[in-house]
Amino acid sequence: MSANLSQRVFCAEQVRTHEPAAAAQSGVAMYTLMERAGKAVFDQTIKHFPQAQNYVVLVGVGNNAGDGYIVAKLAIQAGKQVIVIAAAPDKLLTGDALTAQEAWFAVGGEIAAYHQQTINNADIIIDGLLGTGISSDVREPFIELIEAANSSRAPIVAIDLPSGINADTGVVQGVAIQADITVTVVAIKQGLVTGAGRACAGLCEFDDLSVGDVFMQLATLSAELISYQTSQGLAKRSNNSHKSSHGKLLCVGGNTGTAGAIRLTSEAALRSGAGMVKVYTHPESVLAVSIGRPELMVTATDLITALKWASCVAIGPGLGQDEWSTTTFETVMQYCCTHNKTLVIDADALNLIAQSSPVTSLKNAVITPHPGEAARLLSCSVSDVEANRYHSAAQLTQNYGTCCVLKGAGSIITNSTNTWVCTDGNPALAVGGSGDVLTGIIAALIAQGLTTEHAACYGVTLHAKAGDIAAQRDGEKGMLPSDLFKIVRQLINDK
What we know:
It is built from 19 helices and 19 strands. Helix 3 (63-77) runs parallel beside helix 4 and helix 17 crosses helix 18.
């Protein structure tokens, strides 16, 4: 496997265009590449499910079917009980897929009729139904086989990507395989790592089939995969540093009844290493923000003085959208844009931007919308945002001239030239207040001297990794965003 290629994702068209040339330049026939793909899938199946004896291999009519027939042949040669079920048994295959089917027949293999009980009796299901070319909703008889596989208790290993997933967007085309393992080959398809595609893929394993180095020279990547493990942390602190050396962060928000949001942001910033953190909040929220955390400076007056003091500003958590919110928002935005002060913008500040006309330019900022906020910023629906998360993130960056973090499964970070996708994170982070913590982390990193892009990438992976550790320790359900504080502190000191 190419270590570099395993950190990059590509659109399906790049793979379709450059895979044959990469194989040819590597001196590999396309059928040999298919055999390597089948072996990669079988090897991963044995690795993860060594006790599985009864294999059911579901095949379609394209090259994914050819990969499936190779897996079936290898499995029967390894002494497994193998049943192949074809979605369209009467349709003649062509090219390498036909060669693979004939190789299956040559070892005594057959094509069985579909029966639900056959799938129910499986120890393992191999999904070779649909490949990267699908762009419209799945049709029968594929629907029936996908639903049958999903209803089985057997684990599912998907070849290249789960059938029914759009390789570019990760969108479910009506119905899709819910895989436990996806073995993607040659290059990682961008739809596997974000949104519904990430959820359906399960654990994603990658094999470049020994053509990765050539492929990478030919193809143009869509995005780079990042994780806490691969992210660059903060520089080591000087022995003679002091509190002002590590940034002065102003957190703005916390309207009446929502003081907890800005408290989460500001305490997350302290735990992420910011030297000093001040909170500008609604007068009725001062006590709620400051109580129990004396390290926070809290004020409800003289906003301009606080803005002059700050090296970075975070605005939005708990801000609201009433008169106090609007006045505060306008003051902060005007001051920061005039003085080129770095902003991290979240929550209701994003909603207020969406209501602004004309579009506000935010060149020295990071915006951190969830899909709902992104939809309001783009004047579209949430389903439109999720239908193509890459395009939505890029559109936000283009419209607002800023670095954007589109939150969700496989959070996407974009600036004007690059796109990154976070591979850390889990559903435990899908809880109110989690985004407020992320805002505080990113803002603290900027206050300590990181660029907006570096802070966004490192902050997202730091937050996500902390969520993974918390979920592994105590489970995904019931995690509080404040549970992340001690873990974030540990992680940020481990780098």
